[in-house]
Each structure stands twice: as C-alpha cells, then as structure tokens.
Specification:
alpha/beta; TIM Barrel; eight-stranded parallel β-barrel
C-alpha cells in the first residue's frame, strides 16, 4: 500500500447544489477529470471535501459514489479524525472499509493535547483501524503541531501508521522526520506550494488541492520532482505560483471551488460556516485561469 501513496494524491472537493444538497453529477465530472488527468490516488472526506459539514449518511453516500464510479482503479483514502479519541474509534469501528485503502486522520484540534496525548491518540486509532493510517499535521487549522519526535516515535513503534501528511509549513521539521524515519515511512506534502522542496528533502509526493482543477500539470510537477528533475518541476510550478496563492487567499476550499466553477465542473457553492470567496478574489482567479 505504501508504494501506492507515492506521487500525486488529490484532496477531493464535495460539490453542492445551490440548496446545499450534494451535487453527485458534479462530483462525477470532477472524478472523471482527475482520473483522466493522471492522479495516483484519491482522498475523500478531508478538509477540502468539507467533511465536517457532512452527516454520517452523506459521508457514506460520497464514499460509496467514489468507489462505484472509479471502480477502485485508484487507491481511496478516507478522512476520519477528530478531537474525541473514543468517538473517532467508534467511527472507525462502524465504517465499512470495503475497497478503502487507508485513513487520513487529522491531529486533534481545539483541546490541544501535548506530545504524549498525541502519541496515545494515534496509537489508539491505529489499533482500531483495519487499514493503514496517515497522520495529518496541519497546525494552522488544529492549533497544535505534532512534533517531529512524536511522528518519529509513532513511525517506529506503530506498524499500521505508514505516512504523515505534513502541512506545518516547517521544512526544518520535515528534514528532521526524513533524517530519522523508517525507510518505508512516507512524508507527503500537504501544501501545493511546498511540494518541490519537500520532495527534494525526502518527500514522497503531495495530497494536492489544486489537482482538482489541473491534475495533469500537478502530476507533471510531482513526477519530475520525484525523478530528480527539479528544473522541469519548477518550470511547471512557476506557471501556477500565482494561482496557488489565490486558491488559498480566501480560504480552502473556497478558492478551488471558485476555480472549478470557472472551469465549468461544479457550482460555486459551500456549506456554512464557509462561503464563496470574495468577488475580487474570484475575478483574479478567473483572470489567472485565462493566463494559464
């Protein structure tokens, strides 16, 4: 399974109708677009998928739709996480993992556990999980950083924890993990803008937001970087540097949904408390799409 997590993963959006219901025809268009564009694996029910606003029934419907529509041609990773360890374990135990290849689990947010609490949280989840677990470190959203030492301890002592999605923005932390991690433990970039530098110090790829809209280009970036061809990777990345900034200028997934709407793949609808990006940002995204 670890080898199937190398390269380009896409953090799938969840398209909505204007009335807030899930837009499955639009989800089908996005799936066809990213699969044809060459992504290596799919990540469903993550931050970009607005999973925290979906009911349990809606989450199941989205996962089932993705599995059925893609026919398991690509690995499917499902986001299951939270800040109540017992509740997350219950979610894992009640979830159907048929044709699911792994769990992406965000660090507990709001209650801000220390390193010991983070270690025990993930050790407990991994013990309950029938599939591999990917740690998700995103302190900008959770308010807590998983220290490099804790990630390494989990990597060395818990067999079922196979990777970390690193979105701390701290390359020094990434280097410390890369230096002392087990050989088969993967570091995956959680930031489109840092994909190339993270691969250069030992990363295995990226779980990309931008790949919802431009999968072929971000596959080219990832493949070139993994092959050590950093000039080629950079030359493609430069074309998207401004766009990446715009996608996150008013928050994710507002930016990528605005771009996908401009490309005609989905409607520009989010669920509260999220709202579409400001009109000035939408116009800039539209203008940048034309340049690209």
């Amino acid at each position: 399974m670890k080898d199937r997590l190398r390269g380009l993963g896409v953090a799938l959006v969840t398209p909505f109708m204007q009335d807030g219901s899930i837009d499955f025809p639009a989800l089908e268009r996005v799936l066809d677009h990213v699969v044809q564009g060459g992504v290596n694996y799919l990540v469903v029910l993550g931050t970009t998928g607005e999973a925290v606003t979906l009911s349990p029934g809606e989450k199941k419907a989205v996962v089932d739709f993705v599995k059925e529509h893609t026919g398991h041609k690509l690995p499917v990773i499902v986001g299951i996480g939270g800040n109540n360890t017992r509740q997350v374990v219950d979610q894992i135990k009640s979830f159907s993992f048929d044709r699911i290849d792994g769990i992406l689990s965000v660090a507990p947010y709001y209650n801000k556990p220390n390193a010991g609490g983070l270690y025990e949280h993930y050790r407990t989840l991994a013990a309950a999980a029938p599939v591999p677990v990917i740690l998700y470190n995103v302190p900008g959203r959770t308010g807590v950083n998983i220290p490099a030492e804790t990630i390494l301890e989990l990597a060395h002592t818990v067999d079922n924890i196979v990777a970390v999605k690193e979105a701390s923005g701290n390359l020094n932390q990434v280097i410390r993990i890369a230096k002392d991690k087990p050989k088969n433990f993967l570091i995956i970039s959680g930031d489109d803008a840092l994909t190339i530098p993270m691969i250069s110090v030992g990363g295995a790829g990226v779980i990309s937001v931008a790949a919802n809209a431009w999968p072929a280009a971000f596959r080219q970036i990832t493949d070139a970087a993994l092959a050590g061809n950093f000039p080629e990777a950079a030359s493609v990345h430069y074309r998207f540097a401004t766009m990446i900034d715009l996608l996150f200028a008013d928050g994710n997934p507002g930016g990528i949904k605005a771009a996908l709407s401009e490309l005609g793949l989905i409607g520009n609808h989010l669920r509260l408390p999220l709202v579409p990006v400001r009109e000035e940002i939408r116009k800039k995204i539209s203008e940048e799409i034309k340049k690209i």
